[in-house]
């Protein structure tokens, strides 16, 4: 019998051992690359992978046990506890009790979520109800009484009033909060997350290099586990975040800001998404106005903030020292410790949190603040983390991607480029080819005052090649190094090599940053600056040090939102109702399936998506018919199941069942797309692959055509994670796009290891073939080729330079035509982005509809997206060393057989 971990008994009973199946995967599908483990003994588990992957894992030998307590009832997870509610007998008959059915429940849910209490009362007294059946609840008070009878109320919200002796405020100080430990217990026991949980520190090695991703793969996870005295204890890493933006709406003018909390056991790509509800609001922090000198206002507010966090997290700090039994999503009891591993905040708030005190009376504000400022300290003498075991602000104040990188880019890097390029920057951004899924800046970027993190990233994608021809080479190198650093810092998995590359990119920026000063691009209110005194720039020095301690930094970011509806005491009740409604909605969907226990689910591949919703995944497994009732982002479609798959099964393609144009003749398709040599290209493709004469059958061949298709890949960072598909365009000429709207791709066929870049002009499939020709009976693409210039990337840009591939007619030396060919769609390996080489100021006639046609030279953009960089690097390595293999293309008539580099 094989065992996972150990299940120890607490008390005077001999230890008991519970078995788990050999392929038990506590981390959920896709969390690791394989779900088969090598158990040397009970406490030593090595991860088996395919030999070519050469990946292994080393687990901590004393972590992750679950326990049986003699003479105690069996533990229940969150939804099993809901089944133990006192009204459960009535819900055996009517799952929506005390509401009479799904209709009345949906009405109650709508009223509470969308109307104020006054509006609910007005609605229930409408004349309309005199001629129609009323719901059971006749008033708002009855409605809220019904809500109080629902199971799953969750940790109770409460209101505490603070008074600071000797310091008066304009209004009473109210903290709206709930117990952080109870919130953590509820998250930890939620079966929705059962397939997305981790309990064991571990080291992962890919060959000789260690991979660092989730917190559990970091040094701190291993070291904390080693320091815990209790054999088999489970770490429940606490992650907090605060939003300093004051909340005043519906709060009677009282300023507050929310404090959020989640746990590091939940897989990072799940907890980072707002739709997974893995972040919980635990407090609304007051921001009072003290009746004191303005010099002391911030100091007193900061002390109050630490006092409030101290209260909210008081039981979590006790659990971090002595431990606490908790029930996990699979209804196993674990003995848990709760260290604080990360507080997500911007730089000013991090400075507020990282405070110390020394030497003088902290209550003598004048002398205390004076001495504190001498040491560059803020004057906070009781920080909330002072007695939180394992909490060290040097590590838990993790660098935050949104503020430290994307906001830095918008506030500084983009401004430097604007200063040097002026209006030309807007013209070039407007002229770039429109790609699906990426914002096109129709009005440019100069006049945008505020942007989201997504818009920051969209500008970062193309800012480097956009500068070509205007700014100095050293300026471009500095900006490119910073963009490279930003991209590398967002890697979900790091190795020693990637951390070194990230540090090198930052060093390159500092080597070339003088060019920014020389261009007078860094400016302030008084004119040009000659320094780089930017706190966020200095903060970047800590990124490389932080990753080994806490794991990849991209996981410490979240979409933290909350809704506020009323003031002080009333708001606490409303917050409880909102959470109760959310839990009860999911409960009723699953009420017909017993028990409410989420068994561990494994699958060969995990499909990643822009939104990860574990609740939807659970409902789809336990009660598939209820999926349509759950309002959530739908999972990303896996085209590997029913789409067109490449020969090596690493790439999937999809075209719609109904083509955009059906049963076209060869001449009709050639006319539709304005491709003068389409019939010749098809003839040569047929000749090479069928060795017959197409002219004999051309009049009987009909073609279906698609204006777009999808390509789907596996993640470059997690081999078994399937990424969302990418939509690629191959539209014919139209009134809006006179040349068509056609994207570029990377192609590699089976005859050569040399990839090439092409533009897809048409996607089609022959139908009603009069002959048996497998080469024709598949989806094909008519493409036009680009050639690589040189054997190395352009030194200044770090990008390959491409040029349109032409051939010249021997009989007409002055004429030239684009080199084209027909390929199976399965030869495509990735969508890529080309940016024109702007050698001079942009001509007025250039725009986004023709920029891919009127230029000849382009840069292959290796910042198009983070995941495609690996594909571009793969092509770069081969282009730098092409060897004897070259791609051959056959051309018509005076067309010659040409190689890639001749």
Description:
This is DUF6830 domain-containing protein. InterPro entries: DUF6830, Plavaka. Residues 649-752 form the DUF6830 domain. By secondary structure, this protein is α+β, with helices and mostly antiparallel strands. It folds into 4 domains: 78-154 and 570-629, no CATH class; 158-342, no CATH class; 402-555, no CATH class; 641-880, no CATH class. The chain has 28 helices and 35 strands. The strands form 9 sheets. Strands 20, 21, 26, 27, 28, 29, 32, 33, 34 and 35 form a 10-stranded antiparallel sheet that branches. Helix 17 packs antiparallel against helix 18.
Task: Throw out a few tags for this protein.
902 residues, alpha+beta, ten-stranded antiparallel beta sheet, six-stranded mixed beta sheet, 31% helix, 18% strand, disordered C terminus, Plavaka, DUF6830 domain-containing protein, DUF6830
What's the SSE blueprint?
Layout: E1 37-41, E2 44-47, E3 55-59, H1 78-83, H2 88-93, H3 102-114, H4 117-124, H5 140-148, E4 158-162, E5 173-177, H6 180-188, E6 202-206, E7 209-211, H7 219-227, E8 234-235, E9 238-242, E10 256-263, H8 268-271, E11 280-286, H9 294-312, H10 314-322, E12 324-327, E13 333-337, E14 340-344, H11 347-353, H12 365-374, H13 393-396, H14 401-421, H15 423-431, H16 453-466, H17 473-489, H18 496-512, H19 514-518, E15 523-524, E16 527-528, H20 535-539, H21 543-550, H22 569-590, E17 606-607, H23 614-622, H24 639-642, E18 644-645, E19 651-654, E20 661-664, H25 666-673, H26 678-690, E21 702-706, E22 708-713, E23 721-722, E24 726-731, E25 741-742, E26 744-747, E27 756-767, E28 780-788, E29 801-804, E30 806-809, E31 812-818, E32 820-824, E33 828-832, E34 834-836, H27 851-854, E35 857-860, H28 869-880
Parallel strand pairs: 8-13, 9-14, 17-23
Antiparallel strand pairs: 1-2, 3-6, 4-5, 5-11, 6-7, 9-10, 10-11, 12-13, 15-16, 18-19, 19-22, 20-21, 21-27, 22-24, 24-25, 26-27, 26-33, 27-28, 28-29, 28-32, 29-35, 30-31, 34-35
Helix pairs in contact: 14-16, 14-17, 17-18
């Amino acid at each position: 019998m094989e065992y996972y971990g150990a299940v120890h008994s607490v008390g005077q009973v001999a230890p008991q051992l519970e078995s788990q199946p050999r392929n038990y995967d506590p981390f959920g599908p896709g969390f690791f690359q394989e779900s088969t483990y090598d158990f040397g003994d009970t406490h030593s588990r090595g991860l088996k992978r395919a030999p070519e992957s050469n990946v292994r894992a080393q687990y901590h030998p004393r972590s992750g046990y679950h326990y049986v307590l003699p003479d105690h009832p069996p533990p229940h997870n969150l939804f099993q506890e809901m089944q133990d509610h006192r009204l459960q007998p009535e819900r055996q008959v009517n799952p929506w009790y005390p509401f009479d059915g799904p209709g009345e429940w949906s009405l109650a849910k709508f009223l509470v979520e969308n109307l104020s209490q006054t509006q609910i009362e007005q609605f229930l007294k409408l004349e309309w109800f005199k001629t129609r059946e009323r719901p059971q609840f006749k008033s708002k008070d009855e409605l809220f009484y019904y809500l109080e009878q629902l199971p799953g109320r969750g940790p109770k919200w409460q209101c505490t009033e603070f008074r600071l002796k000797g310091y008066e405020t304009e209004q009473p100080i109210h903290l709206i909060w709930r117990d952080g430990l109870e919130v953590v217990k509820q998250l930890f026991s939620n079966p929705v997350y059962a397939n997305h949980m981790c309990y064991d520190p571990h080291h992962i090695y890919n060959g000789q290099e260690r991979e660092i991703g989730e917190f559990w793969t970091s040094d701190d996870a291993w070291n904390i586990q080693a320091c815990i005295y209790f054999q088999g204890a489970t770490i429940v890493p606490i992650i907090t975040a605060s939003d300093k933006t004051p909340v005043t709406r519906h709060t009677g003018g009282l300023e507050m800001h929310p404090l959020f909390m989640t746990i590091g056991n939940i897989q990072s790509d799940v907890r980072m998404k707002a739709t997974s509800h893995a972040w919980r609001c635990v407090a609304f922090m007051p921001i009072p106005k003290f009746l004191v000198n303005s010099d002391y206002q911030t100091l007193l507010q900061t002390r109050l903030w630490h006092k409030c966090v101290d209260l909210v997290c008081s039981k979590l700090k006790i659990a971090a020292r002595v431990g606490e039994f908790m029930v996990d999503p699979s209804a196993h009891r674990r003995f848990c410790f709760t260290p604080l591993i990360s507080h997500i905040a911007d730089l000013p708030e991090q400075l507020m949190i990282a405070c110390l005190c020394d030497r003088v009376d902290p209550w003598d504000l004048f002398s205390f603040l004076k001495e504190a400022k001498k040491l560059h300290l803020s004057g906070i003498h009781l920080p909330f983390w002072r007695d939180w075991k394992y909490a060290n602000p040097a590590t838990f104040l993790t660098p935050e991607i949104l503020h430290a990188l994307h906001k830095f880019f918008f506030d500084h890097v983009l401004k430097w480029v604007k200063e040097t390029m002026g209006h030309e920057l807007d013209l070039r951004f407007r002229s770039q080819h429109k790609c699906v899924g990426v914002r096109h800046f129709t009005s440019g970027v100069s006049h945008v005052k505020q942007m989201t993190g997504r818009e920051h990233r969209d500008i970062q994608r193309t800012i480097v090649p956009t500068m070509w021809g205007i700014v100095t080479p050293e300026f471009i190198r500095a900006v490119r190094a910073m963009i490279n650093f930003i991209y590398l810092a967002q890697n979900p998995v790091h190795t020693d090599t990637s951390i070194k590359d990230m540090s090198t990119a930052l060093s390159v920026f500092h080597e070339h940053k003088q060019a920014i000063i020389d261009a007078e691009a860094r400016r302030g209110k008084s004119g040009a600056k000659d320094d780089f005194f930017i706190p966020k720039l200095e903060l970047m020095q800590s990124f490389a040090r932080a990753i080994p301690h806490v794991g990849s930094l991209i996981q410490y970011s979240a979409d933290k939102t909350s809704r506020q509806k009323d003031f002080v005491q009333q708001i606490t009740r409303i917050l409880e109702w909102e959470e109760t409604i959310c839990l009860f909605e999911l409960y009723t969907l699953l009420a017909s399936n017993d028990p409410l226990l989420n068994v561990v689910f494994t699958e060969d591949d995990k499909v990643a998506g822009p939104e990860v919703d574990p609740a939807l995944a659970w409902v789809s497994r336990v009660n598939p018919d209820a999926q349509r009732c759950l309002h959530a982002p739908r999972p990303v479609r896996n085209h590997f199941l029913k789409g067109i798959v490449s020969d090596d099964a690493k790439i999937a393609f999809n075209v719609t069942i109904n083509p955009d144009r059906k049963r076209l003749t060869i001449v009709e398709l050639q006319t539709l797309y304005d491709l003068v040599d389409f019939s010749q290209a098809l003839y040569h493709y047929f000749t090479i692959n069928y060795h017959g004469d197409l002219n004999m059958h051309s009049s009987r061949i009909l073609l279906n055509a698609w204006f777009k298709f999808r390509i789907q890949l596996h993640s470059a960072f997690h081999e078994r994670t399937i990424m969302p598909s990418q939509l690629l365009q191959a539209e014919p000429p139209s009134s809006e796009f006179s040349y068509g709207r056609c994207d570029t791709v990377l192609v590699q066929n089976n005859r050569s290891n040399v990839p090439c870049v092409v533009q897809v002009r048409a996607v089609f499939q022959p139908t009603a073939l009069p002959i048996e020709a497998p080469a024709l009976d598949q989806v094909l693409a008519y493409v036009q080729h680009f050639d690589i210039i040189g054997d190395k990337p352009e030194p200044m840009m770090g990008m390959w330079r491409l040029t349109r591939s032409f051939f010249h007619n021997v009989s007409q030396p002055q004429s030239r035509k684009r080199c084209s060919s027909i390929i199976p769609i399965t030869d495509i390996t990735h969508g890529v982005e080309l940016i024109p080489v702007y050698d001079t100021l942009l001509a007025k006639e250039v725009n986004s509809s023709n920029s891919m046609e009127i230029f000849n030279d382009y840069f292959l953009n290796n910042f198009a997206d983070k995941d495609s960089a690996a594909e571009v690097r793969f092509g770069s390595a081969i282009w730098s060393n092409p060897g004897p293999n070259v791609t051959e293309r056959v051309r018509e008539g005076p067309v010659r057989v040409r190689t890639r580099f001749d």
